[in-house]
Write a sequence for this structure.
């Protein structure tokens, strides 16, 4: 994981939002496989969090989304966690977005 000591602390509202947005029962790798295609902008990893487990989870997700620290690609994670049908649905969605825009 990158050195995050210089990052600002998340305010309580951002920390609350993170807890509501992310399914922490799921690994960041599986979350990225299932939901990464929907994140067009991600800045939660620009902050530190008072809860170390939340912070570690979010930083790992950021590493995956931004391909830092030797993180696996979304395609590799989809192959590991998703069915062929789920992968095809994502591919079709991405194709539609490429034609129609976001």
């Amino acid at each position: 994981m990158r050195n995050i000591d210089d990052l600002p602390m998340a305010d309580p509202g951002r920390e609350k939002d993170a807890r509501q947005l992310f399914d922490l029962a799921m690994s960041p790798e599986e979350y990225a496989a299932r939901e990464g295609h929907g994140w067009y902008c991600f800045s939660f990893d620009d902050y530190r969090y008072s809860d170390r487990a939340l912070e570690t989870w979010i930083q790992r997700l950021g590493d995956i989304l931004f391909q830092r620290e030797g993180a696996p690609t979304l395609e590799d994670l989809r192959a590991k966690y998703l069915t062929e049908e789920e992968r095809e649905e994502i591919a079709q969605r991405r194709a539609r977005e490429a034609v129609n825009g976001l």
Summary: The chain is about 55% helix and 0% strand.
